[in-house]
Write a structure and sequence with these properties.
It is a single chain. It contains 10 helices and 13 strands. It has 339 residues and is an alpha+beta fold. The strands form 5 sheets. The chain has a 3-stranded mixed beta sheet.
Length: 339
């Protein structure tokens, strides 16, 4: 009987202690894997909102100062570009050619601004085409355009608006030196040949259609006495000896421009002779007959970058402005100006 009582007591004690042992051995309850750690405290985290991207500025958002006839004027980039197109490209050129010109002009503005604002006596740009782009306010063109002035101005503004803010960028996303000129000699010049520095965006390109341009060929004649006088005024060391050749040691670019030549024993650049005698380009040949020298030129302008007549020809063949730009500039991409 005692054994039965003892066994009952032991069984009863075990039943009391077993739940306590199971409770101590159980692991702590973990939150579901789908909840973030903050859910343990009852807080649900939200992802930080993405910053709103700042829109690229348009031409109407950028204000610059332009030196016009020696007086500084403030205007939007849109108005400035319309004035550049009025001065730089015929209004009746095809729309895609005008758009290509607008992008080139906008890019050149952005390129010049890399050097800082106020470079021209406090102005950002100038209408002096010898150092910058030509500029003519549309109102000033009214006399030349007559009754077509409103329509022509609208064509220029439409080209600017259609390419709003678009520029060409090269290395490190910087605007390229988008120079341009009127008519090539059939091939554009490289920046290295004309200005002495390699530029990956300004290489020589074929532009054979320029041969059809009015003014592709030109002539300037001067007497031997006049030639001697004009050369000596700039190069006093030149010596013109009877019976000896006055011109020698010609050096030309791959496109045909005169890089250098000795005149009266003095080496000078073809671009200098162009300036002295008012030639249309430095791509010229020289002939002599009866005491008169004749300079025969091909093309019009420095020859580097985009040929404006070439842009016209490509537009007439169905090319868009981006294709026209790619025909004359290298290693660039089109993107919005950054202000």
């Amino acid at each position: 009987m005692k054994k039965v009582v003892i066994m009952c007591c032991a069984l009863w004690a075990a039943m009391l202690l077993l739940p306590l042992a199971l409770t101590e051995a159980a692991p702590p309850e973990l939150p579901p894997a789908s909840l973030p750690p903050a859910a343990e405290s009852g807080e649900i985290s939200s992802p930080a909102p993405s910053p709103t991207p700042t829109p690229a500025p348009g031409d109407a958002d950028i204000v610059l100062k332009v030196s016009v006839a020696g007086r500084t004027e403030e205007m939007t980039l849109a108005d400035y570009l319309v004035g550049v197109l009025c001065a730089e490209m015929p209004a009746l050129y095809p729309e895609e050619a005008l758009k290509a010109q607008a992008v080139a002009a906008r890019t050149y503005y952005a390129y010049r601004m890399l050097g800082g604002a106020g470079q021209y006596d406090g102005a950002d740009m100038t209408d002096d085409s010898s150092v910058c782009m030509a500029y003519t306010a549309p109102a000033a063109m009214a006399g030349a355009w007559g009754g077509d002035a409103a329509d022509y101005t609208a064509r220029m503004r439409a080209a600017v608006t259609a390419t709003d803010g678009m520029i060409m960028t090269g290395a490190e996303g910087k605007p390229i030196a988008a120079v341009f000129f009127a008519i090539s000699s059939g091939k554009t010049e490289s920046a290295k040949d004309i200005w002495g520095s390699e530029n990956p965006n300004l290489r020589s390109r074929d532009s054979a259609w320029d041969a059809d341009a009015p003014g592709f060929s030109g002539e300037v004649t001067v007497t031997a006495e006049e030639l001697q006088r004009k050369i000596s005024a700039k190069y006093p060391a030149a010596r013109f000896v009877a019976g000896e050749p006055w011109f020698a040691d010609w050096s030309r670019s791959a496109a045909g421009s005169v890089l250098s030549v000795k005149v009266g024993g003095v080496k000078m650049k073809g671009s200098d002779l162009r300036a002295i005698f008012g030639l249309r380009s430095a791509n010229f040949t020289l002939s002599y007959s009866g005491g008169v020298y004749t300079f025969s030129t091909r093309g019009y302008g420095h020859g580097v970058g985009m040929s404006q007549y070439g842009a016209r020809a490509l537009a007439l063949s169905g090319k868009g402005y981006a294709e026209i730009l790619a025909a004359y500039y290298s290693d660039f991409k089109l993107e919005k100006i950054k202000g």
